[in-house]
Specification:
The structure holds two protein chains of two kinds. Chain A is α/β, with parallel strands linked by helices. Chain A folds into two domains: 161 residues, Glutathione S-transferase Yfyf (Class Pi), Chain A, domain 2 (Up-down Bundle); 174 residues, Rossmann fold (3-Layer(aba) Sandwich). Chain A is built from 20 helices and eleven strands. In chain A, strands 9-8-10-11 form a four-stranded parallel β-sheet. In chain A, α4 packs across α17, α6 packs across α7 and α6 crosses α8. The longest helix of chain A is centred in the C-terminal third of the chain and has 19 residues. Chain A is globular. By secondary structure, chain B is mainly alpha-helical. Chain B folds into two domains: 105 residues, Alpha-helical ferredoxin (Fumarate Reductase Iron-sulfur Protein, Chain B, domain 2); 106 residues, no CATH class. Chain B is built from 13 helices and no strands. Chain B is globular, with a radius of gyration of 22 Å. Classes of the chains: A alpha/beta, B mainly alpha. Chains A and B meet through α3, α4, α5, α6 and α7 of A and α4, α7, α9, α10 and α11 of B. Bound molecules: iron/sulfur cluster (SF4) (2 copies). One iron/sulfur cluster (SF4) binds next to α3 and α5 of chain B.
């Protein structure tokens, strides 16, 4: 008789066959379509063209390329606007049809995780109001924020599993004159960047193979509801998310591993706003200093609002304590846009970042001062009132970078 | 006093909140337990500590997601009350703890405990949320959690001279953003339609969210209601 241990060894000796049809995960879409068949909800289909990818447990996920409704992030738009403008700039470079709506609110998930001054019905109602607004336009939601993405996945689970929640949310939506709509897929912008990475590399004008980067995977992208995040056997053997890392590798950047990759950034939702001693300590001691000690990267790249803010802004105070800091923090969208020649200030808006990004630009051979001087002239014209502001007309054209001496 | 089999009684040596009747503590726990999400978040606990090893808050605070899952699995009313008063606001809500081999979601349990603490206006919770009111004001009125005009040097001294530089240039920097919905906007993250905001206010009233705010901060509640009702009437 074979013992259990031998059975396990035997099983492990077999080659892994990746077959989405055999994937152990339940496919939430089946439940959505069932509810739709019962007339309970409307499922908004992913528009064509889309690219199929595999998720953690191997189900196939559709990532739309265009006709997207950009569900913006309050932290990105409010405090790191170059993050948002880079996402839009990339869409514009490829001539893709998108909508940047004003009929959109935050998911309010940040507030919920910070203060709990909400409840399940309110959370779900805010989400489906946004989804209904997207549905009315015919454009498909593309979620910019990692927390909105994770939060919406969780709320979708709750809506699917709890009829009383659906009924209550429908009652609220009736008051707004809106239908209960859920999208076929909940898609994060970094998944769009991921499936576009080869197209981005085709138009790469800045060589990046002299850079070493670390990756911080955003907790709410892959921890809140573990399914739906993109995994690929080529990236860390399918044991870590494929987004960000696959893009950086495609752009020629050396991605360096570090021991605390699974740790969060220290954002903490309420901590970043009212108890930053925790945030600073965690961001520096568990992330930045560890990266510095282990691989000394030229930059660290992440794909969520809170992570960029926390990792970037926490470094100043730590410097005063002579901690080993000084790693610029960018989003994957900003790195992709820079690779394609986006203006460092008109598009990337690097002046909103506080950790020094100049050494990284110099390593890339980019004469950042020249572009800052140019941008300063823009600002001066705005100050004097001779220009209202910067528009896409000023920012669309990729830059042919002047190399620093 | 040396620990002996007679006096060894971990976690139950003394009630830390004897002034709160047991029945009240039990009522609060039952409110947590009655949440439909409760059974999705707790399946028992192996005490393996995997959640603790992944937990950022456990590194910097006297805090443990394992203790929370344990106390709730054992339905230890006294301990759960202590957790509600002393621990829940330490959680960073990162959900690293969902690595749990038992399928628990300790971070989710914290969310449920927080909701009940807020709904019942626990004094300690009111204290914790005091400095947070301006954020609630922003998110409920503007539909955005944060906005550029919240980045004031007084609130973010630890972010260094960058905040001063930003503050001095905010309106010009905001106009120098090519995205139409962001350009020039300083009191919100992006431009939101007033119709959209009215729909949001309707959600707050219809879902009982305003009652929650009343429980935490009555002054803030009055302020919010006044602005929202005026806006809803105009619409
Ligand atoms: S969600 Fe809370 S309990 Fe869970 S790992 Fe994060 S900080 Fe710890
Ligand atoms: S990981 Fe899960 S089973 Fe293990 S101690 Fe934490 S809650 Fe309990």
């Amino acid at each position: 008789m074979t013992t259990a241990v031998e059975q396990i060894l035997e099983r492990k000796a077999q080659a892994v066959v990746r077959d989405p049809a055999q994937a152990p995960a339940h496919d939430i879409r089946e439940a959505l379509f069932e509810l739709e068949a019962k007339g309970e909800i409307i499922v908004q289909r992913v528009p064509e063209p889309y690219v199929e990818v595999t998720t953690k447990f191997g189900r196939t996920k559709k990532i739309p390329i265009e006709h997207t409704w950009h569900h913006k992030s309050c932290g990105q738009c409010g405090h790191i606007p170059g993050y948002s403008s880079s996402i839009f700039w990339l869409h514009r470079q490829f001539g893709l049809d998108y909508l940047d709506p004003t009929d959109q609110t935050s998911c309010t998930g940040w507030n919920y995780y910070a203060s709990a001054t909400s409840n399940a019905v309110a959370q779900a109602a805010v989400m489906v109001r946004n989804f209904a607004a997207a549905y009315e336009t015919g454009y498909f939601p593309l979620i910019h924020c990692g927390t909105s993405y994770g939060h919406y996945k969780e709320v979708r689970e709750q809506l699917v599993h709890h009829k009383e929640l659906r009924d209550e949310v429908r009652r609220v939506l009736d008051k707004l004159g809106k239908p209960l709509v859920l999208p076929e897929e909940i898609v994060h912008y970094s998944e769009w960047v991921h499936v576009m990475r080869h197209k981005i590399a085709e138009r790469q004008v800045v060589e990046m193979n002299m850079l070493t980067a670390t990756v911080h995977p955003a907790c709410h992208y892959y921890k809140i509801v573990v399914e739906d995040a993109i995994y690929d056997p080529e990236i860390y053997g399918g044991q870590r998310i494929a987004t960000i890392t696959a893009l950086l590798e495609t752009l020629g950047i050396n991605v360096a591993d570090y021991s605390t990759w699974f740790d969060c950034c220290g954002f903490g939702f309420r901590h970043i706003l009212v108890q930053r001693d925790f945030t600073r300590s965690f961001a520096v001691l568990r992330k930045i200093e560890t990266m510095k000690n282990e691989v000394n990267p030229d930059l660290t790249v992440t794909h969520d609002t809170g992570c960029v803010t926390t990792l970037d802004k926490s470094q100043f105070a730590a410097k005063a304590h002579e901690r080993k800091v000084g790693i610029p923090v960018l989003s994957d969208a900003q790195v992709a846009a820079l690779a394609m020649g986006a203006h460092p200030f008109r598009v990337l808006q690097l002046h909103w970042h506080s950790t020094d990004w100049r050494p990284m630009m110099e390593k890339l051979g980019i004469d950042w001062q020249k572009y800052w001087d140019e941008f300063e002239q823009d600002l001066e014209a705005i100050r004097k009132g001779s220009r209202k502001g910067i528009t896409w007309e000023d920012a669309d054209q990729p830059v042919v970078f002047t190399r620093s001496a | 006093m040396p620990t002996t089999m007679e006096n060894w009684n971990p976690g139950k040596k003394q009630e830390r909140y004897p002034n709160v009747p047991y029945a009240e503590k039990e009522r609060l726990f039952l409110e947590v337990k009655s949440d439909p999400r409760y059974e999705d978040f707790l399946y028992g606990c192996y005490e393996c500590g995997i959640c603790v090893s992944a937990c950022p808050s456990a590194r910097f605070y006297d805090y443990s997601p394992r203790v929370i899952a344990q106390a709730m699995a054992r339905e230890d009313i006294e301990r759960i009350y202590e957790i509600m008063v002393e621990d829940i606001w330490n959680c960073a809500q990162c959900f690293s703890c969902v690595r749990c081999p038992r399928g628990n979601n300790p971070g989710g349990l914290v969310t449920l405990l927080r909701e009940v603490a807020v709904r019942n206006g626990l004094q300690e919770t009111r204290e914790v949320l005091k400095g947070y009111s301006r954020v609630i004001y922003k998110v409920m009125l503007k539909g955005n959690q944060v906005s550029p005009d919240m980045l004031q040097p007084d609130f973010f001294p630890d972010w260094g001279p960058w905040v001063q530089q930003f503050s001095a240039n905010m309106s010009v920097w905001r106009r120098a953003i090519p995205v139409d919905t962001l350009r020039g906007v300083t009191d919100a993250a992006w431009r939101v339609d007033s119709k959209t905001l009215r729909e949001l206010y309707t959600i707050w009233f219809e879902t009982g969210n305003m009652e929650i705010i009343k429980e935490v901060d009555e002054g803030l509640y009055d302020l919010l209601v006044e602005v929202m009702e005026e806006e809803l009437e105009e619409g």
